[in-house]
Amino acid sequence: MNRNRLTSILINTLLFAASISIIYGYALAFWPIQIVDYHQAFLATPKDEYSAGEQLFAHFDLCKKGTYTATIYPELVGDSIVPMEPFTSQVAPGCYDTDAAVGYIPLHTPAGMYKLRLITRYRVNAFKIVTYSIESTAFSVDESKLIYL
Q1: For residues 115-147, b (16+ Cβ closer than 10 Å) or e, as one string?
Q2: Do 8 and 60 belong to one domain?
Q3: Where do the DSSP E strands lie in the chain?
Q4: Residue in 78, 36, 58, 52 with CA at minimum distance from that of residue 136
Q5: How many domains does the chain have?
């Protein structure tokens, strides 16, 4: 009799702990969280004109909270959307005011005016992904000045 009672108490305790864990996980999934605080409305690009194949830089002025790894999906937005190579970034928490490379302008990019859009995703936990999107000021891409790497 005592053995069955002890087993029952143990099973009930484990079920209670599992229920609390699930409730906590769902609460984190819907709880608002801010990971990045951008200090500018738009990214600034150091140049106004680029060539296909050229490395693209953007100026970042932001504060990062937490040690989350970012997956960044850059794309050029103009008459068409030209996806660039996604990459991951692990930046320590803190405030940054710096220029950083975001990739190379794809060789197949048609000439025209574009904005750089960065879609950044942070996996906070198994239930939650936080997404930020920011665009740059407009710049031109000239395919006649094609750079061969």
Answers
A1: bbbbebbbeeeeebebebebebeebebeeeeee
A2: no
A3: 36-38, 49-51, 55-64, 70-77, 81-83, 87-89, 94-104, 112-123, 129-135, 139-142
A4: 58
A5: 2
Q: How many CB atoms lie within 10 A of CB 71?
A: 15
The predicted-structure confidence for 54-105, as pLDDT tens digits, reads as follows 999 888 888 999 889 999 999 999 999 999 999 998 889 999 998 889 999 9
pTM: 0.75
1 and 50 inside one domain: no
Residue 103 identity: G
Size of the chain in residues: 149
The token pair at 60 is: 């970042």
Extract the tokens encoding 23. 């409730």
Which DSSP state fits 81?
Answer: E
CATH number at residue 65: 2.60.40.3930
Write the pLDDT tens digit of every residue in 99-136. Answer: 889 999 998 889 999 999 999 999 887 778 999 999 99
